[in-house]
Amino acid sequence: MRNLLQNINGDKAIWAIAALLALFSFLPVYSASSNLVYVVGNGTTAGHLIKHALLLFLGFGIIYGVHKIPTHFFKGLSLIAMPIIIVLLVFVLAQGTTSGETNASRWIRLPLVGFGFQPSNLAAVVLMIYVARYLSKIREIKVTFKESILPLWLPVFLVVVLILPANFSTAGIIFSMVLMLCFLGGYPLKYLLGIVGTGIGCLTLFVLIAKAAPNLFPNRVDTWMSRIDSFSNPEDTEANYQIEKAKIAIATGGVMGKGAGKSVQKNFLPQSSSDFIYAIIVEEYGLIGGFALMFFYLFLLFRIVVVANGCSTIFSKLLVLGVGLPIVFQALINMAVAVELFPVTGQNLPLISSGGTSSWMTCLAIGIILSASNKNTAQTKESTVDIDESNPLEVLSGQL
């Protein structure tokens, strides 16, 4: 154990935040899993806790392994991974249709281990690395919009379009984060405004086609529309069942909370161990617990900015912001949904909610941030090595 701790490098504050969030998650996940056991009839509370522990153990293994990889390696890895991601997204989109609130087009069932894998979560991380690589490449040169269509916007368009039919919230977050990263990376604002307009037009066209021909391809347009209608019409209590139960949980939690494991609404609130776990946390630990959890995510945001500011290259700065900001953004969206500041999205609370793929991809992103903050894997100045970034093998082997 001592040797393991000695081999841990990178920003110690980020390590501490990730560890504290993961350790704390055992309490609300164990408490909320009673809904799955006694209401849904799925497994045992101990079984769900062991599964959660296993997923987090593997997740921290991902953090440890990734944080040892020199940051410049991710340039080539993103080029190699992008075609694989596109193929996986096409595969999951083609394999299933919607069934109630569950969409078979989101998941790939992994053989042997029995876990479901959601390629859209991996696509989000890979795409942000890919965009950071491109922006760092054009940082010192002036490019036209036409020159950036194929290398930048075509991959972004493919990923967002392939995720959109099954998961609008994830597609929206990815698109928003790409736009934000491009803005931070100095991409011309007039081009970004054009992309925003094009995106809105494409989304409108997609919704119109889906409504006109609902059986043409699997989609969840009706689910999105009902969630937006429910958010704009809070009087419709039947459609707002989840939100109403979440608000009751938060209201009855008070300042100090009812205490660990004493939540009542966990037995009535669907997705209490994943999408709405923040409401259960506030019910059990009060506003103090809810604000403390928010503080840790905001402190993580602060450390992400500090790490990015301390990086020596444009790529590593954009990389840290590209994979780090979505973690905090997703956490704030999850909390906003629980208090009815945002429509229901289905986004988990990073490192807290139960779930495999989302936790692993959060851990992957944290590992990348730690790699950039790790002085032992600090990369050589990009300007000192002549590397052809169009060749991923050269990128991987360069600067060793």
TrEMBL record:
Entry membrane topology: Multi-pass membrane protein
Any coiled-coil regions, as ranges: none
Keywords from the named record: Cell shape, Glycosyltransferase, Membrane, Peptidoglycan synthesis, Transferase, Transmembrane, Transmembrane helix
Cellular localisation: Membrane
Annotated catalysed reactions: [GlcNAc-(1->4)-Mur2Ac(oyl-L-Ala-gamma-D-Glu-L-Lys-D-Ala-D-Ala)](n)-di-trans,octa-cis-undecaprenyl diphosphate + beta-D-GlcNAc-(1->4)-Mur2Ac(oyl-L-Ala-gamma-D-Glu-L-Lys-D-Ala-D-Ala)-di-trans,octa-cis-undecaprenyl diphosphate = [GlcNAc-(1->4)-Mur2Ac(oyl-L-Ala-gamma-D-Glu-L-Lys-D-Ala-D-Ala)](n+1)-di-trans,octa-cis-undecaprenyl diphosphate + di-trans,octa-cis-undecaprenyl diphosphate + H(+)
Residue spans crossing the bilayer: 13-37, 49-67, 73-95, 107-132, 152-184, 191-210, 285-306, 318-339, 351-372
Presence of the UniProt keyword Nucleus in the record: no
Matches recorded under InterPro entries: FtsW/RodA (IPR001182)
Superkingdom assignment: Bacteria
The EC number(s) this enzyme carries: 2.4.99.28
Uppermost EC category: transferase
Family to which the UniProt record says this protein belongs: Belongs to the SEDS family. FtsW subfamily.
Record-given protein name: Probable peptidoglycan glycosyltransferase FtsW
